[in-house]
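**Folding the chain**
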Amino acid sequence: MERSLVISVSARPGCYRHIQISENATLFKLHEAIVESFDFIDDHMHAFFMNNHAWDSSDEYLSPGGDLDDTRGFTDKVKLINFHIKKNDRFLNIFDFGDEWRFRLKVLRVIDDITKIFVILKSVGEPIQYGYDDDDEDGDEND
């Protein structure tokens, strides 16, 4: 039977999502679920570090079109099932290498269920992808 994962994705303390996704989904699909669940614009590169250590190229998977010299593969080619993920496993998704959004992932449950498209089960907190100073109402930093 096909299984699904329920993953807690934390953007920062007090700001997280619980996402249910098929273990047959690619890392790329998981990244899309993460970005969409936080209502971010997916306009930058991303990487997964399956050993939960940022910038460790020994277990790094990079967004398509990236530099494969230091990675194991592209996120659109690797499925979650390949990692034999179990409850309490932790890994990291870094998005936007300039701002370096670090999404910390923890597997809450592995369930015997088919999940065709990802589901956001819980949403707490609202991060701002492109925030501006309160003093700068229109966002123009060059006044």
The longest helix spans residues 27-37. Confidence is low (pLDDT under 50) at residues 132-143.
